Amino acid sequence: MTILLQTLSHPKVGGGIHVSARVVERTAAQLAMSVPGVGAPGTQVMGVGREADFDKRPRLQTHIDGGRAFLTIDCAVEYPRPIGVTAEKVRQVLTDRLTELTGVPVARVDVRVRRVVAHLDGTRSVV
């Protein structure tokens, strides 16, 4: 799906600016990763899986409706960062910066913290 953001009004040049939902999704995931202590929750199969990966972008689902983005992000938060404060920072960064970078207004951001990971002696473990 692509979103028509703007139709150019120059009389000799026609066309428009189109942004795909995938571009919005990837941009949002990168923005979320810019928040300190936020990363990918890791993968899990039948209860067994990897711990969080702070070198990867969080998982994101994007739904575009009426030219507005509805986002759901699955992420990990590094312990001892406050979970609620960190999740709100993710929501704020996505709401403020995504529209600025893509031109697509953000209608809603749901942040789901799937893992909390602590640093113990330089290693990470799931709390």
TrEMBL record:
InterPro entries: Asp23 (IPR005531). Pfam families: Asp23 (PF03780). Belongs to the asp23 family. This is Cell envelope-related Asp23 family protein. The lineage of its organism: Bacteria, Bacillati, Actinomycetota, Actinomycetes, Propionibacteriales.
